[in-house]
Queue: 3 jobs
Job 1
Amino acid sequence: MSLTIVDPGHLTLVQDAGRPGLGDQGVGPSGAFDRGAMHQLHALLGDPPEAAVLEVLAGGLRLRADADHRLAVTGGIGPVHVDEERVEHGRAFVVHEGQEVSIGPVGLGLRTYVGVAGGVEVDAVLGSRSADTMSGLGPQKLGAGDVIEVGAPSHAAGVEDVPALLTSGATTVAAVPGPRDDWFTDDAVRTFFSTAWSVSARSDRIGVRLEGPTLERQVTDELPSEPCVRGSVQVVSAGMPVVLGPDHPVTGGYPVIAVVIDDHVDRLAQVRPGEDVRFTRMHAP
């Protein structure tokens, strides 16, 4: 059983739960940027948590079924069609052999997730099928004519449909100050937590780059490279914050002013260039 890519759109990648726990080997976590949207696919299709899915940037994907399959679409919201018939976002649907599925331009959010019952089957690298755009580990980005093998469905669907997780307007995420907030002036820390930061068009899976007022440092020494985690907010030399995404490097030399709590990093997968991001302060437990 398989699917054929007719048009990969802007960027379509295979993603799963990633490669957590390998930072000491220099391997980043990778995996689906919006993990909540991926988990919704697993529930809709009855797939296990390790099943791989397709992550589609800004829509444009077209694929053809080479056998009968059950699919679902979550995450970024846009029109989804089977041939000429519109199907619902957040609900499983059947595609028959020879039919085409098209994911239209995303109107809300940024990344759409497409799952197929049985999961996407590609060779695992270090225990994961995820494409890491920084290191090159895992499968390459999909191109026209690529054939996607599909596993055998083995579980009943857990739910009939799921709600969209997205809302319009500014995206707000909670962040814990530090570990290097003391490298910045008190005014800079206050500014970080009070500003509506604009998302840069240069954002990607490595980091969500933000634009706004310059964050002034009070410690100007060079910082030796130190470990970084998903959600770390580095402040680069130009004084702008970058929130590290799933394909981030495992170490970095820019001071980290705060760390976004793990569950809220998923929200940043769906922010579009020009939209606003705000940070609310949380205290470490």
Job 2
Amino acid sequence: MATIIERRPPRAAQRAKTGRSRVASIVWHVFCLALLALLLYPVAWLLGSSFKPGTEILTNMNVLPDAFTFDNYATVFEGVGGLSFWTMLGNSLLISTLAVVGNVFSCTLAAYAFARLRFRMRAPFFAFMLVTIMLPMHVVLIPQFIIFQQLGMIGTFLPLVLPKFLATEAFFVFLIVQFIKGIPRELDEAATIDGAGPYRTFGYVIFPLLTPALITTTIFSFIWSWDDFFSQLIYLNNPDTYTLQLGLRLFVDQTSASSFGPMFAMSVLAILPVVIFFAVFQRYLVDGVATSGLKG
């Protein structure tokens, strides 16, 4: 019987190979950490500058201040331009919450219609909806402003909230459509055999299975609505409706160098809800994108 002799590389070669892979791993981790530090430096500098006195912000480029002060945050909580910080925070939360509710409600219904129902011109309507994703917002800005102005909605939250209840966010419709297409049609057929119509099938069969896609829609809707500055600048001309984003703009009109401190402090407070929201729902965001057909 022939004996099969397994040739093994010498121990020196194995150690050299292990050493090279270990060095490559260390170099890769050092590169990632350096890139992370480069990306986080502006945020760290913003956080550190919020604790600097006004005279130190433009002279001290270090992340940490020479002397910590909480006067900037005290000035923010006192209000700016006669507006209360808590009022602006409440306005931002109200707009973002209504945007989330509107997108989840309307985009889910529209996606169910495109994915499951049969009606005339369904394919052209779906294609037209996808085309709107590629349109820059500046193309429709003036027509929308004229419409809302004629309806008397300028200066209220309606121009920012009402479109969300009309399924105008084509990205979320497409996201949920892709998810619904992954649900077996046998479930719909079983519901139909049991006497359920389209509404009951949606409410009792499809909707409970859309949790990952709905969570993804919720996260993106909140973050995009919270970070939106341009639309709020266009439609909100009443100081009582100002948000935190518009409140930051009030510091730009002041010429005193000490205004940079409160502006950075309010910037940190404006970023904090988004960071907390993303940190809490990060796992659901990854699961939702991975199971919604966006991975290809």
Job 3
Amino acid sequence: MTEPVLARLTTLFEADRDPAKAAAMRAYMRDQFAFLGIMAPRQRELARVATAGVRRPNEADLLALADACWAREEREYQYFACGHLRRHVAVLTPAALPVLRRLITTRPWWDTVDIVAARVVGPMVARHDGLVAEMDAWIADDDLWVIRTALLHQLFYKSRTDVERLFGYCALRAGHGDFFIRKAIGWALREYAKTDPDSVRAFVAATSLSGLSRREALKNL
């Protein structure tokens, strides 16, 4: 399935290439990646056309297509892969986690990592209890994007959140010096505060967090 979908997508994306918008998008992303210059709504429209009539992918299809997209230079291909993984996350098994880790740590930046963390890894962990131990290992990892994924994987769990784990992860990484980790701590806490504001207030009051993490956590309280 990979080659026909990628071939269609390439044809569609190339026809919509816009150098002026690509330059602006690249600048916005701090010159981290090349872009075709296709805005998000149009990307989604073209993705639907590229996958129209194609059979439902299995795990091997999904991961092969994601790897193929990650090998492309322009960022829109990685955005397509993230959306495709999210759409079909139900077919992914624990065996897919090493591949997802590779995607997280290859061409890494918040724009793809956060989608994979909260919308792909998160639902997988929710379905497969055995992956909780993997998140415990990821929060202790040396790679900042792997750490960020562990922090954010419960982002949309709401009342299903493992609160002890959420607070434990945040406390463990509270002293991390990187902006993206401190921001993720605050974001994870702020999102859970929508479910249980009192517990977040109490945790923030009792924990030595960075100013950034604290501000983000309490922003809506």
